Request: fold
Amino acid sequence: MKSKVSKVDGTSRELEVEVSKETVDQVLNEAVKNIRKDAVLPGFRKGNAPEDLIFKNYREEAWDKVKETLVPRAYENALTEHKIEPVSYPEITDLKIGLDGKLSFRAKLDIYPEFNLKKYMGFKVEHAREDVSDQEVTDALERILQLNAEFVDTDKPVDVGLFAISDIEAFIDGKSIMKKRENAWIEANEEASVLGIGKHLYGMKKGESKDIDVVLPEDYPDKNFAGKKTLFKVLVKEIKEKHVPAADDALAQKIGKNTILEVRDDITKHLKEIKANNNKTKAKNQIIDELVKQYSFTLPSGMVKRQQDVLLKQKEEELAKKGIEKSKIEENKETLKEQILSAAVNKVRLYFILDKIAQVEKISVTEEDVDEYLKSLAAYYQQSFEEVKKYYEENDLLGGAYEQIKEEKVLDFLAGKAEISIK
Reply:
């Protein structure tokens, strides 16, 4: 085998590879023999046809087997010969078997960029205070009380704070614009109810109906109806009053604790954990910013393009969820690509910086690390560990999980070496 490498640009290389006729003939003969085992030709029992007839009838399949076997093998040998560390799959071109019987091809690939590590330990990061005040505990306890509130039927007319269980229809110019909503909960409160309908229900009693005119806001998700006068037909079927429980031991026992003091202690612990996790996340982000701005080495263009495509897809999905029309998203696609290019560059650059730190500090990812990561996903999505692992294996996602875990381990390491100041 012969091969040579040439530089295309900063991190792009092209290999020219040639495999000898002897090697090609050897692999071709093996391919023909393997095809012969299952081939059935007229006048011959399965597996007994002459090899020359097998080659004549299965020529294309045999040559395909040769290429499938030799291209990956020759590519790997060329990488080893030239001590190349690729960071992308190769783009194979000019693949052919010449009249001289030799197989040749070109392989374009991205390589690991060359750069020297700069400072990566001892960054100064800011943490917020992690102590929890009595007021924060009281506010959190109030949210628990609200979650455990009971809604009781009442004969009172609708008033502030009550809830009207209603059927709702909406019309513009006499035409229905939505499917009838049955048993919708409307809080009698201008701010809390959809489009402020709640305030129009004051004084209504169970069984009463009312027509309500509302102008839909300009930012209404469906642009066809935004800014238009809409008639809502509302039928009040039930009226309920919210009863919030007292913060006492009875409530504590209802939610699995013994006393209300134990509940407050648990809230304090939980809030401290949240603040600690927030500090950890903020510290990592500060370290990432400091790392990235230190470097300007050339990046593999293919990796940047793929990362840009990922970020673009995420942005398009985000805009679609906000009600932006697909045509508008497509119209602004090039602008979006330009806006996210910087983020894509930073993500790829960070990948190489963290990877090199991992090499220097001997930070590795074990199979147990990956399993723990998948178990956490399984718990979050309420699936079995086996299902999640199978999904990751079948969709070739384990490599991505490995890289994500490695980056987190490196950032945890750097956060542990940072100088922390409390603000």
